[in-house]
């Protein structure tokens, strides 16, 4: 399938205009090794197929049933065509999944976490993933083969547009790069003591003896 230049330009504009805010837990989620046995619940066929967003950790089905993560936000990972995938309706609540190639699992759309090792590489750049160059099934609709590829692409574009960036902090009391430096301490002021904390009343003078009559 050949894509003309006008279609490619239009798609690139849509990708640039898409608003992507990466959750802080997403990088750790994409690097996890799913489908391994749970050390807390070493039961048969009990694998780490879930990720707790609130705790930022891998968990199994028994971990959820035990009550520790029952009311937390949890993503479930599935296997589909040798890929680790999540259902679109669950992940799109937290991340903009536009332009990521979709598949169908039980008639419901899913997207891949990372590029599959067995996927073929595309011969034409316009028909391939913009990051890993793997072949896209419908290149006129998609630009990335997985979530991690879109995250990498968006991060690179953000660095080029904003070369000076600061790491978000939880407390506003921590100064950032853009915060003005604190004012210099006045000389002669004791450390930890305000210069206005001294007694402001006039010091009592020397008592005078009354004259004898």
UniProtKB/TrEMBL annotation:
Q: Does the keyword Secreted apply?
A: no
Q: Which GO terms describe its molecular function?
A: zinc ion binding
Q: Where is the composition biased (Low complexity)?
A: 163-177
- Protein's recorded name: B box-type domain-containing protein
User: Which stretches of sequence are listed as region Disordered?
Assistant: 160-213
Q: Which UniProt keywords apply?
A: Metal-binding, Zinc, Zinc-finger
Q: Which residues form the B box-type domain?
A: 38-77
Q: Which domain of life is it from?
A: Eukaryota
Query: Does the UniProt entry include the keyword Zinc-finger?
Result: yes
